[in-house]
């Protein structure tokens, strides 16, 4: 029993690593434009197809990985410049409609270019079992890649001038402009970085779920759950929220098997219930900051 429990926790951490990456990308976009990007999952899926195509042409995994991150960054920055800059001051509903349109566009493009058949995606990690049967090597690799990427992003925002400027532009655009920060450029960089982070999530998870145009639909929902539970104004909290959702998802499904109840079939519903439950008691999320406005 204890071994099975530990196995579910470790598997949940592996899933949570992907949710954490998606949650981080969601929060980066939210801080830049104060809205959720509903096309984040489809952008990650499209980037994953780019990586698959490069490897299909014979390019080694990690080189294809780096090229895909660069291409994804350019796509994200391009979308901000060409699509969202002109509608920056438009109503929120206009932004939502554009996000939904981008979701459909990326999904249709992927299907038109690479068709809708399921494709196997390679893993760069060893295939030999490690730690007994508790966790697979690909799951360990996903966790390691996630933690390394999160460390790089933390150091970037904490110790580089560009990272500090991006934080200032996200937290207080007007004050940032007054001290010479080019807010629009920082917003574009944020979009590019969010697209690249989403690409990492897609590439890491594709081996487990297989590659097809709808592969990120459920994962995006869990990523939103992690971001909301952790706090949409706290990137670190969103990451912790992603890991928390991953572990909770697996433990709930395992408990359902123990009591012979098919909880695993309604895991998405449970994720939504979890979001509602947290927001009822902590509207800003578990690690979010409470904002007080004077009127």
TrEMBL record:
Listed transmembrane segments: 12-33, 61-84, 96-114, 134-157, 189-209, 215-232, 239-256, 268-288
Topology class, membrane: Multi-pass membrane protein
Main location as per UniProt: membrane
Subcellular location: Cell membrane
Key words, A-Z: Amino-acid transport, Cell membrane, Membrane, Transmembrane, Transmembrane helix, Transport
InterPro entries: ABC_transp_permease, BCAA_transport_permease
Family that this chain belongs to: Belongs to the binding-protein-dependent transport system permease family. LivHM subfamily.
Name of protein: Branched-chain amino acid ABC transporter permease
């Amino acid at each position: 029993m204890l071994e099975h429990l530990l196995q579910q926790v470790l598997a949940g951490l592996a899933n949570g690593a992907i949710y954490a990456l998606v949650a981080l990308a969601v929060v980066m976009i939210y801080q830049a434009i104060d809205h959720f990007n509903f096309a984040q999952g489809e952008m990650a899926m499209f980037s994953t197809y780019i990586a698959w195509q490069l490897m299909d042409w014979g390019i080694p995994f990690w080189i294809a990985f780096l090229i895909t991150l660069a291409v994804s960054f350019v796509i994200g920055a391009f979308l901000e410049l060409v699509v969202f800059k002109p509608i920056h001051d438009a109503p929120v509903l206009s932004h939502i409609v554009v996000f939904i349109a981008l979701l459909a566009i990326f999904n249709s493009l992927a299907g038109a270019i690479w068709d809708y058949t399921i494709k196997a995606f390679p893993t760069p990690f060893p295939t030999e079992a490690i730690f007994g049967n508790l966790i697979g090597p690909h799951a360990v690799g996903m966790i390691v890649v996630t933690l390394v990427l999160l460390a790089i992003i933390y150091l970037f925002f904490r110790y580089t001038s560009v990272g500090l400027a991006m934080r200032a532009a996200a937290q207080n655009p007007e004050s940032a402009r007054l001290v010479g920060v080019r807010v629009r450029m920082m917003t574009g960089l944020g979009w590019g970085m969010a697209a690249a982070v989403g690409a990492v999530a897609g590439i890491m998870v594709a081996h487990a779920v297989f590659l097809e145009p709808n592969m990120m639909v459920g994962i995006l929902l869990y990523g939103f759950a992690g971001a909301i539970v952790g706090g949409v104004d706290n990137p670190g909290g969103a990451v912790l929220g992603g890991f928390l959702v991953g572990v909770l998802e697996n433990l709930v499904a395992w408990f359902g098997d123990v009591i012979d109840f098919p909880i695993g079939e309604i895991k998405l519903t449970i994720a939504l219930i979890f979001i509602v439950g947290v927001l009822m008691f902590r509207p800003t999320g578990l690690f979010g900051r409470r904002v007080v406005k004077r009127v």
